[in-house]
Amino acid sequence: MTRDLSKLRQRLAALRSKTTANGCTEAEALAAAEKAAELLASTGMTDVELDLGLMEGLEVAIGTRRRPIDSVWISVAVFAECHGYLEKNGNRWSWVYFGDPANILVAEYVHEVVRRAARTAAREFRDSDVYRRRRTARTKAQALRALEEGFAAGIAPKIMAGLWKRKGVAGHAPAVRQALVQSIRAPIKEEMGRRGMSFKPSRALAPAAGKFRDAARWDGFAAGRAVDIDAPLAGRGVAGLLTSGDRS
User: Of 13, 35, 52, at which residue does a domain stop?
Assistant: First the structure.
């Protein structure tokens, strides 16, 4: 189904590119436009329905346990103009980005930027006094948990700020920003509903414990705020498009 729709959209794009601005005569442009209209009419679909039908999901493995960093993925989904949800198969968790294939690429890119940055922050934190003063495996694990909580709290609003900047609403009221998010997600949720996709709320994770947690969280928060989500990432072609311009 997706393959057929992709070919259909490619044919429509080719026909619609035949304009006078692209060197075609008026007769050629008119004939191409009429052919495109006939092709779309033959499917019984509108342009919007065609785009919705091409939506797909990308599953990203997150391990056998949920972690504080997983709270960031919903911000990544919104930033990339996708919908996101948790999924569990057996004892393994994954996060799914659902939406237009081009937007899923951006979500996958930013997800990897965040994941690498969190891993780097944890590695550097293990050399800090806050971590080294912990004497047991349990308290060390709690320190790393607190670090990740702070990291998530630091990077999530920065990701959203990238969306506000790209959409030109950085200086607008929260209500305007919320309306933007709703307008982005409404057609995606509608398509998910049409496909019978529904979800249950996930259980909240217990926060880190220990007197040292505030120091660890602060270190994590600073690390999260320092991440450049627009940074280059080997093998991907979307750097430089994340916080400026319009991808669609």
Answer: 52
Q: Which residues pair with 84 in a beta bridge?
A: 97
| 1 has pLDDT over 50 | no
CB 15 within 8 A of CB 36: yes
For residues 92 and 61, the answer to whether their CB atoms sit within 8 Å is yes
Least confident range of 22-31, 42-51, 191-200, 210-219: 42-51
- Examine the domain organization and report whether 28 and 131 are in the same domain: no
Residue-number span of the structural domain to which 96 is assigned = 56-225
Residue 105 lies in a domain: yes
- Element housing 112 (H / E): helix 101-125
| Residue scoring higher pLDDT (100 or 3) | 100
**Those residues with Cβ within 8 angstroms of residue 150's Cβ, 6 or more apart along the chain or in another chain:** 216, 217, 218, 219, 220, 221, 222, 223, 224
99 and 9, same domain (yes or no): no
48 shares its domain with 165: no
- Residue 144: which residues within 8 A CB-CB, separation 6 or more? 122, 125, 126, 131, 216
DSSP structural state of residue 245: S
